[in-house]
Amino acid sequence: MEKTESQHRNDIIDVCKRIHANGWVAANDGNVSVRINQNTVLCTPTGFSKGYLTSDQLIKVNLDGEKIEGFLQPSSEMKMHLDVYKNKENINAVVHAHPPFSTGFAVAGIALDECIMPEIIIGLGSIPLTKFGTPSTMEIPENIRPYLKDYSVFLLQNHGALSIGGDVYQAYYRMESLELFAKINFIARLLGKVNILSENEVKKVIKIREQFGLDTENYPGCRIDGKVIKKADEAGNINFESSRDKFDKTIEYADKSRYFDKIVLTKEMLVEIITAVVKNVLNYYK
Description:
L-fuculose-1-phosphate Aldolase; 10 strands; two-stranded antiparallel ribbon; alpha+beta
């Protein structure tokens, strides 16, 4: 059942209050919009705190950014909202905010695209870092546009984050997932280790995603070193557990390396190998 304009207005206000309560915006930061029909968008006004907006303060504009209705002025960053609506199908809501952990990664110039958490791999795939653009200009939307096909959440370099969705709650929840992921990633870095999932493990997770019937055409996947994993295949169903009773630790790691393009050795194993090589060399020259 389609929502009325009044319901859309209430949804925007609800999401604005949530992002303010979460500490994702300060002062007049952030903006939210909902596309209510083919050529009409409801958006937040410029110069107002998102925590204290009322539904009658929202602005109605067309896809060219021209004001249709409202006594305030639309957000100066509506350009990136409208560009999303023009360039990606089935998107009816955009949320822009400055969630601290996500924005911290954006300021540090670090994309959140590694294969780390199953929930993120299933729900978002990964989060790219778009190039810096001057606020209120077309630079930001132009820098986001190349990523629109596959991604639904974006880190804006030295700026903040943007999330999109079929409705305003999907866009909001995607940003909520982004911020929690960024926070967990940050904590893991403080602890000194971010454990990247193996290619086999990632493919198993993506298989679950495919079983959920989620989009496989426009899916960004996630990164392991320089390799991006987007699809599950037969290798994703390999179970290394079954080999543990047949091979010792060295053989087990070597077996895994065929799929990961990387050999993992413990310190003890490396010492043993080097010791054996040195002994062989010495014996040769006796």
